[in-house]
Amino acid sequence: MRRADNHFGRSQTVTYMAVSETLKKTPLYDVHVALGARMVPFAGFDMPVQYSGIIDEHMAVRTAAGLFDVSHMGEVYARGPRAFDFVQNLVTNDAARLTDGRAMYTVMCRPDGGIVDDLLVYRINAEEYMLVINASNIEGDFAWMQAHNPMGAELTNVSDEIALLAIQGPEAFGIVQSLVGDALDLDAIKFYHFVPMAPGAFLGCSWAILSHTGYTGERGLEIYCQAGDAVRIWEALMEAGRARGLKPAGLGARDTLRLEAGYCLYGNDITEETNPLEAGLGWLVKFDKGDFVGREALVKVKEEGPARKLVGFVVEGRGLPRHGYPILDAEGAEIGVVTSGTQSPVLRTGVGLGYVPNDPAFTRPGTRLGIAVRKRPLPATVTKPPFHKK
After folding, report:
1. N or C: which terminus of the chain has fewer CB atoms within 10 Å of its end residue's CB?
2. Coil, strand or helix: which one is 366?
3. In angstroms, how far is the first alpha carbon of the chain from the final one?
4. Which residues contact 81 (CB under 8 A, 6 or more apart)?
5. According to the model, what pLDDT value does residue 21 have?
6. Same domain, 187 and 321
7. Are residues 181 and 145 located together in one domain of the fold?
8. Is residue 147 located within the same domain as residue 166?
9. pLDDT at position 374, please?
10. Looking at 226, 261, 296, which one is the last position of a domain?
């Protein structure tokens, strides 16, 4: 394994597989190649990093719509009479707040509070949940779930059977609405809600879920479907969106969009060495729900206060913050490290996330810091995301 940067300011640090290793292909691989996408190894898959260009795709999502292939993500079903108990013990958020057709964002932690992964939990019904996990963690996450299943829930890894498309941007709902007609009012799908479609109701698919979550900071939908239906859905969406400015978008734009919105990336901003309280994800930890893996350690962190904190920042001048660059205090002393950084296409300057000591002198919005770029301090200001809406 090696670390590699993306192709927009070389800002994203992700784990790519060595070229010699066998890469998986999503059901849309041939579509990406036909569109002239630049393909890169990512999390064990051969994935499109860009088509027309990262900035162009980024701005399409901000002003119209972009279509992403995120079929590399993993899906695991938890079923049976103890499925709820399994989920409730596995994750930090409170699954008791879910009803049929609702989803939640959460993390699952190690006993020491370190984050195993961040994920989405969909409640299909009282005895069936779908857990959506990061592509690079599929095998490890599934093994972790199996090892923490004393309830005996039926766990099934269906990642290879399901494709996932995400259409994001101001025009996204209108594009999909033109395909479903009067059969469903998409505006009725609230944030973090989803609708399982009846067989044949969505473009003739035998099975499909329309979900409203998102990872770009824009309004949009995720479409889960059988792998064999992915190409047909992609083509229908692109045709319906042609007049509305829809463009295919790759991993590069997905990273710049999520960073402008201030969303964490697993492997960069959150890892097994970070806990949700220091990562600004304390709102995902519901201590009053009862026991869960990592609760005892997180209670201690809450009582003592995290030693460090993940903050957002906007830089001044020319120069890009990149993963691993030191963060400096006003006197130039090294106090932290950049976990994600990029050039914001909206702000036209560098933005990023990084860990600093949990002290108002370093974490308060408006605080002046520095980013060591090639040993030269680049002025930066602590800024609460989303950056693109400032």
Report:
1. N
2. coil
3. 37
4. 127
5. 60
6. no
7. no
8. no
9. 83
10. 261
CA distances from 128 to 85, 167, 194 (A): 11, 26, 14
274 located within any domain: no
Helix 54-63 × helix 251-261 angle, to 10°:
50
- The tokens for 218 are 């824009």
Residue with tokens 């050039």: 343
Q: If phi over 0 gives left and psi between -120 and 50 gives alpha, with beta otherwise, what is residue 279?
A: alpha
CATH number reported for the structural domain that contains residue 127 in this entry = 3.30.70.1400
* Full-model pTM: 0.93
Q: Is the pLDDT of residue 360 over 70?
A: yes
**pLDDT (tens digit, 9 = 90+) per residue, 190-232?**
999 999 999 999 999 999 999 999 999 999 999 999 999 999 9
Determine contact, residues 121/63, Cβ cutoff 8 Å.
Answer: no
Residue 317: pLDDT over 90: no
What would the pLDDT profile of 149-198 be if each residue is shown by its tens digit? 999 999 999 999 999 999 999 999 999 999 999 989 999 999 999 999 99
CB 16 within 8 A of CB 267: no
Distance CA 90, CA 219 (A): 29
**pLDDT of 375:** 75
Please check whether residues 203 and 344 belong to one and the same domain: no
Output the CA–CA distances (angstroms, integers) from residue 145 to 15, 107, 156, 275, 298, in the order listed: 22, 13, 10, 19, 20
305 burial type by CB count under 10 A (0-12 exposed, 13-18 middle, 19+ buried): exposed
- The last residue of a domain, from among 157, 188, 203: 157
Does residue 168 share a domain with residue 42? Answer: yes
